[in-house]
Every structure is written in structure tokens, then in C-alpha cells.
## 1
Amino acid sequence: MSAVDAPPVTSGTILRFLRVTLHVGFAVLLAVGVIRLLMDQSEGPGRYWYLALSVLLATTYLVGTVAEKRYSAGDMHQNPRRFAVLWLALITAMWAVLMLGSVEFSWLVFPLFFLHLHLLPRWAGLATAVLMTVGVILAQWSSAGSSFPPLPVIVGPVFGAAFAVATSKAYRLLYQEGEYQRLAADELRRTRAELAATQHESGVLAERARLAREIHDTLAQGFSSIILVSRAALRSLESGDLESTTESLTMVEATAAENLAEARNFVRGLSSPALTETSLVESLSRLCSKTQREAAARGGSLRCSFRLDGEPAELPQPYKVTLLRAAQASLANVWLHAKAKSAVVSLAFLGSEVTLDVFDDGRGFEPDKLADTVAGRADGSGFGLRSLRERVVAQRGTMTIESAPGEGTVVAVRLPLNGGRIGSGAEQSGTEQFGAEQFDAEQGESA
């Protein structure tokens, strides 16, 4: 594995290495003292007492370190930290007794320095380090049998104590950094979880809005048409006009079949079936013919025509669906509520943009009178052109409404071609921004 591929060394890794080194050093120094004690040729029961005390010291030290390890790993619920001072006092007292019996145990003072400086308050750790250094110097001076302590006897313990203090300070700094990293990692995980939850919620809301648009622009309009045409068929049947009744029932059957196709494609996540086998131009032309037949089936006299300007260009599928839904939503309001005599759907390719205009000569309305229908009405209606505006804005286009009482209405949709941009809904005037909702409200109740 190369240096680039090697895992990063963190402060936690360094701290674990130092702890393992400390425990191994304690075990090695204790083993050296026991071996030197066994090599002592002097006889007497005292040696065996010191050996037993060495075993007790090793056991006590091992119990404390294992308890701390299990608590850190989560295997033990009770924190052994509250017994740390008692544990440290026991192993220090046993070390002092062993050092009196054999000076070889004095070297255990180096790992004990680290334990005192780590487990005790700063001032207490320094005080005990000084006392243990003096004790080691006295023990080695007594073992040397000289009238004045040799220089190595003084320099060795003092240098060891100073090194232990410096290393303990570095250990504390690493420990604090490790805690900061742990807290930062916990905060990062919490922030990521909150971000994921927010993104999930946003995705759910966006999907709900998309489903609402699809259902309104397809199934809801189809069902509304079926209801109105079936009512017209019932009236024709009651009056004995079988020809009109047959025409209305035929229209009901055709609309139901189209709704079924829309529902199946909706479940499969496909686009409108009106665009799967025909072009946008053909789909719009058929929509105009269908709208005129539906108006006639319910006793109306709406003339609906389609006009194409410019050379048709290949459009992305989202554009095709948006323009088709725009025409469907606009004509649904025209033949249901505008009381218009004629309507014109105009599709134009103007080089840098494609436009769709739907004009009717119906009763119109005043766009300046903004109705409170932004969220739709309680029965689920009033949603049509608002959802259409969301479709258009999602494709970086614009939608405007022009109308006046008695002068009809024009719904204009513009979509950019070649990656261009034609403003946004936020850049439009108040009339344009709320024109869709006002149109839907003034024209009456749509599906």
C-alpha cells in the first residue's frame, strides 16, 4: 500500500499507541524487577513475600486497565474512573514497598509518573512526581552505599520525571484534540442526518407537487369531461334525441379510454400517451378537435382551431409535455367556463424560443383583482393554471395571462431553445404572477 493509500493517523490512534506502550512498559519493568529478585542469591522468606507482592501488583494493575478498556468499549456500564485514585494509591504503595526490598523495582517509577500526571489534578500529579523522584534517588543512593549520591543517581530520575511531565502535557493536548474531533464528528453526523431528512422531506414535497400536477392535468380533467358529457347524454336521452345521446356516449367512451391510458402510463412513469406515437403538432391539432367535439356533446358551439407558425424543431420531451399540458389546461377552462364561441391554439417556433398561445373570445376577467386561490380551493379545484405555471418555470420559461371583462383571454407560454433563458416567474409583474390563479378563479370551478 502506498503512502497515499494509507489510512490517516488520527489523535485517537496516537493515544491508543501511547496507552499500549505505557502498559507494556509497566509489564516489562515489573518483569525485570522480578527476574533480578529471583537472581538474588540471598536466602530468606522476605524474597517470597516480595514475589507475592509483585504478583498482587501485576493483578491490581491489570484489573484497572481491563476495567477502563471495557468501559471505553461500552461493555461495562459503571465508570471505573471514580475508583482511579484508590487504584493508583494501591499500586503506588505496593511499588514503594517493592522498591524498599529491591532497588531494581525503582525503574517502575517512569510509567507511574504518567499515571499520576494523567489521573490526578495537575498540581497533585506534579507533587507526587517530585516525591517519587526523591524516593527513587534515595533508594538508589542507599543501594550504592556511597557517602554522597552519584551524579547518574540524581540525573536519571530527574530527567525521567521531566520527560514524563512533558510527555504527559503532550498526551493531554492530544486527548483534548481527540475530544474536539469526536465532538466535531458527532456534530457532523447530526448535521448530515438533519440534511438528509430535510432533503428527503423536500423530495417528498416536490414529488407530491408533481403528482398533483399530473393528476390534475390528466385524470381530473378527463373525469370532469366524462361527468359533463354524461349529463348532456342524459338530457338528450330524456328528450328522445338518440343521435345526440349516441354521440355523447361515444365521447364518454373515448375520454374514458384516454384516461385509462394516462393512468397506466402514469403508473409506469411514462410521458403522456398522446406524445408516444404522434408529434406535438399532431397532438395539439387532435386536442383542438377533441375539445370542439366535447363542447358539442354537451350542447355547446365552441369552434377550436390550431395554428402553426415557423418550422417545427425537435423539442426535448419535458418541453413537449409542458406545452401539451398548457394547451389542455387552458382549453379545459375555455370550454368549461369561459362561455366562448371560438378558441385558437397557436404554436410558434421563433428560433430562440418556442411559444404557445391559447386565445378565446369568452367572458374574460380582470387580472388586477387577485383572488385568494394560491393554494387551490377546499374541494381540490382551482389548481390548474397554478400547477401549469410551476411546470413552465421548471423549464426556465414564462407564462403570462392577458384578459379583460368581455374581451376574452390569452394564455401565453414561452420556453427557451438552445439552452437560453427567458426570465423567471419571480421576474414577472404581479399581474403575470397571479394571472393563472385569477383566471382559474374567475372563470369558475375547474376540476
## 2
Amino acid sequence: MKPDVMADGIYRVAAKIGNRDLFEGIWPIPHGVMLNAYIVKGSEKTAMIDLVKDWDGASEAVDRQLDELDSNNGNLDFLILNHMEPDHTGAMVAFVEKHPNVEILCSDKAVALIRHFYKIEKNVRPVKDGETIDLGGKTLKFFMTPNIHWPETMMTYAVEDRILFSCDAFGSFGQYEHCFDDELTLRERTLLEGETERYYANIVSSFSSFVLRGIAKLADLPISQVAPSHGVVWRGEPEKIIAWYKSLATYMDGPREKEITVIWSSMYGNTAALVPFVVEGAESEGLKVHVLEIPQTHASFVLEKAWRSEGLVIGMPTYEYKMFPPMYHILDLLERSHVQKRKTMRFGSFGWSGGAQKQFDVFSETMKLDCVGVVEYQGSATEEDKKRAYAMAKEMARQIRNA
């Protein structure tokens, strides 16, 4: 890869990560992910914004691009760390060895993390909210945006060029051949749509209230480009990704899309038997229905659909007096991610004894679910059970449609 020119003296230096590993050790990346860092050259000084980690050749790829920019020979003046997560700082020890005089700028809360993660204390300086540095014709301004998505997070703004370097905010999964949103092919645009929403649901959703605060804080800032640390740089429609994130953040408390996500699991087919009746009942009211079987479907994709949907249907059997373990894992993840206040129903079979419902009731209370009903039965479903499941799903869909 070559450095991407964003403006006079401003460049993206990026690496493409493949699909071998899990992002954050948990989320699959079947289409890979981008690691983006940035160089800002003024007439007097040069700053690098964020780093990468030694992951799938990322360090070497970025080093080659820095060589092309004549910025890899110890002559960088500033390293600006917007966020301390290791995918943006993992190469820091090697970087500081190569640039021993670089001044590291970060938020106040990041100082201790630099020490704990990398044992670096020299030339580390915290900056304040609204503080600026002058590179010579290039002014960088810092905005504290905590908990998007770690407490020490900040964003950096290139004043003259109106570019917002937002780190994890406004990012996405996926690899892209093109740097900018207005260059993407149709295939890349399609990929970006799904991978942005999955990235948000997986990485950012539980911090949605802070996303809304951050967007409000930056509302009066003129922005020509949004440059995140994952995904593409938004140059053609920077306002689109900001509005998109604002919409995704509102899904926590609502309103959400008038869709229903059916999450189901079955041991021997007795719970599975009701799935088509639930889907048919929901679709009879004209709502879009997402149907996801677990554990066959990774939790990453389940969370993506559940986050956007106003309705949530949980189908699972009782397993040894408790919830089916893969479903317990899913509900635990949904609760952690603040999937809450959804219209909900539950169905499922049990053998010699029930018990799943008792655990589900706890999740229902903590997630503030509006449960319209339960269809639970011993052994195999009767025709009456199937009719009840259809009617209950239809009624839930009707309530969502008319809300």
C-alpha cells in the first residue's frame, strides 16, 4: 500500500488485516479490517496520529509508507494517541525506540495506561480539552470524548483542513481497496453498510449514551472529512457517517427499526418446530424478520440484528433445569451491550422438567423487556402450541407496527 493523500501535508498510512484472527479476541472478521494511522506535516513540525499493532504485517506495512513520506527516520515531533487500545498502540515500544525524541500527546487518563501497558513515562504529555498545537500552518485541536469507547478516548481535529481524526468512533469492519467513501465500488459500499452496523453493535453499542454526547459536543465543528482508525475515510459525505452513528446510538433507548429478530436454538427439533409459525405470524403484519440459529450463528451477527430491531423473539429449550447454555451466552452478551426495552416473546420445549423460563425472567427484568407472552410445552409441540405461537408473534408484530 501507498500513503493516501487526504489534503496537502495530510496522509493516511494504513494496513489491511485478514480474517484469520478474531477482533478483540471475540468478534469474527470474515472480510478483514483496516488499521488506519495518520501523518500531518506542517511547515515546522510533523505529527503522527495513532499507531497500529504488530498484527498480520501491519507494522511493516505502515513503516514502508512512513519511509515514502520521509517520516520514519526519527524525525517525527509528536505522536498523538487518541485511544489506548492495543490495536492502536501495540507498536509503541518499537516506535519510541525508533523515534526517541518524539513527544507523546494524549488525554490525562491515558498517561497511566501508557505506563502500565508499555512502561513508557518519558516525553509523555497530557493535553486538555480544546488545547491546540501548531505544526506550522497546520493546527491540531483536541477534544475529550470519553467512553467512545474507553474512558481515556479523545479526538484530534485538523483546524485548517477541517478533518476529524476520530479513532474508533465512526469506524467499521471490512477491508477496502479504496481510502475514501466517494471512491468505493458497489461491492465495497454493500460491504461497508453491513460491516459498519456490525462493528457498532459489537464494539460501541454499550457506550451509546457517550456517542450521543460526543456527537453533540462536535455539532458546531465544520467537518470536511471523518478519518476513523478502522474502515474508510468519509470525504464525500462526512455528515452521513455521523448521522448514521447517531441513529445507531438511539437504538439503545429507541426508537429502533420496525423489525423482529428471532434467535432460536433446539436440541432435538422440538423447539425448532415452532420457528416457522413464529416467523409467519410476524411477517403477516408486514415486518422484516431476521432468523438466527445458535450456536450455529456467531454472537457477533446476532448482536448486530438484535441491536437494530424493535422486536426480539427467543426460542430455546430447557437444558438440565436451566436455559440452553448457548442461549444463556447470547442473552448475557445482549444484556452487556444494553439491548433493552424490546418487545419480546419466548417459546421452547422441556423434557422431564422446566426451568429455562425462570432464568429468562431474570434477563427479561434486567433488560427491561416488554414480554408479550410465552409458549412453553413439554415434549413436542401440539397444534394448539403452533397456533398460539403464530398468534403471539402476529400480535407482537402488530404492536410494533402501530407504535
## 3
Amino acid sequence: MASGQNKPNRLTVILPEDAIAFVEQLPIEKFHGIGEVTATKMHSLAIHTGADLKQRSSLTLPEASLSELTHHFGKAGQYYHKIARAEDGRPVEANRVRKSIGAENSFANDLSDIGQMLQELDQIAQIVEQRLEQHETRGRTLTLKVKFSDYHQITRSKTMFTPISELSTIFEIAKTLFLSIELENRSVRLLGISLSNLDNAKQTQAIQLPLFQNGNIIF
């Protein structure tokens, strides 16, 4: 939530003693895990900020307030009850394993020419290959994403027996998937390629720093 405060290039630091005040002033739509539908429902309950959420949760005894939130929002009510008080006991995972690598391009002008679409697909495949190389990994499942001018979106996937990372293979599979789609004279707004089922054996592992060096403790 802090990273979204001063986009795109500013830094927001929230100290522990400022966490509650920060949460109280935050619009309910800015909370992680609260989407458009949930925010609309909260608005209907006169909940517009973190302070509203906390106050509504404190109208009665804690047990009753928690049951009130779970009544309106199910199991998520327990989460909302905690975040209204800046409480989150989940451990920080600084080295999560990446599940997919991909790239996509949304076009300023919708594409209607097949040749141009394939040309754009080739450029996207090049970016995917570069990102795979940067992360020293390969993938077995290639997924093609196509969004049309009417914002209707479809995906097509193919899983290989062995992982791939070569540009020629990525493009040929993506091209085959693309040509299997019935365009029906529709123009294309977005194209994307991603690889999942990654071979993570070579991904960067967390490094344990040494406590001693040359017999001395490192401070």
C-alpha cells in the first residue's frame, strides 16, 4: 500500500508508530485485497476509509464486531478486521519462486493485418527470450493471450515435454496458437506471450552471509 502512495518515482516510508494513522486515512479502495465489488458493498455500509472500517468494527464488543464483518464478507471479514488495525502477521517472503515469465503489448491502434500481428508477436517473443535468459530459466507451458478491440480476451496454451527458451521455438508455438484462432474479421488490441512450469533449478537462491571472517566476528 505504501508503494502506491506516491507513484511513479517517489518513496513512502511508514514507520511502525505511524501505521495506524496511515491505515485510518487510507481510502478503502487502496487496501490490498479489496476490489471494486467489495469496495462498493462497503460504501453501501458507510465504510469509505480505514477509520470507517475500524469504527464500524468497534461499535460493539470485539467478538460482535468480528462476527458483523464475517456476516457481511464471509471469511474475509477476519482479514478486514485486522487490517483496520494495521495488523498483519503473515511472514515476509523476500525470495518467492517466480511462477511465470512473459511479455505483452497493448497497441495504440488496433491491428487488423495478420502480417502485422505476427510481426508484433515475434517482437514479444524476443522480449520473452531475453527475460528467460536474464532469469536463467526455461518453461514448459506457453500461453498466448489475445485481446480484441471489443475487449474480449482469450488465451491458448501448449505444454511441451521439455522446457524451452529459444526464440525460434517460442515464436513458432505462439504463431501456431495464434493462427488456430478464428479472428472473424476482428481487430486485435493486445498480444501477449508467457511461459510457466518453469525450470527453477538455476534461479537465484537466498545467500546466507557469514558470521565470521578470518576468525573475527563481522559487524
